[in-house]
Amino acid sequence: DILLPGERCASTSNRNFEGRQGRGGRTHLVSPAMAVAAAIEGHFVDVRNWT
Fold first, then answer.
1. From residue 46, how far is each of 11, 18, 21, 27, 40 by CA, in Å?
2. Separation between Cα atoms, residue 48 and residue 6, nearest integer Å
3. Is residue 38 part of a domain?
4. Would residue 2 count as lying in a domain?
5. Where are the beta strands (DSSP E) in the chain?
6. 8, 23, 26, 29: which one has the fewest Cβ atoms less than 10 Å from its Cβ?
7. How far is CA 28 from the centre of its chain?
8. How far are the Cα atoms of 25, 41, 47, 51 from residue 17, in angstroms, in the given order?
9. Number of structural domains found in the chain
10. Residue 44: how many CB atoms within 10 A of its CB?
């Protein structure tokens, strides 16, 4: 996927470097549990608060 400048995404990839998913986009490396929580909620959340 290509991000637009200022967009953010959650990724479970094991690599990240500047511009990997688009110039100006921000990729956050997260655990699979965090990626699922972000997908369900539509934004980043603290999975430690999920019970």
1. 15, 25, 24, 17, 12
2. 27
3. yes
4. no
5. 8-11, 26-29
6. 23
7. 4
8. 11, 26, 25, 33
9. 1
10. 13
Q: Is the pTM of this model over 0.70?
A: no
d(CA 39, CA 33): 10
Which DSSP symbol is given to 33?
H
**34 vs 39: CA distance, rounded Å:** 9
Structure tokens, 47: 């999975």
**Distance (Å, rounded) from C-alpha 18 to C-alpha 38?**
22
Domain residue limits at 20 = 8-49
Summarised one tens digit per residue, pLDDT across range 1-51 is 788 998 888 888 877 667 677 788 888 889 999 999 999 999 999 988 876
Return the structure tokens found at 3: 């991000």
Tokens of 8: 């953010």
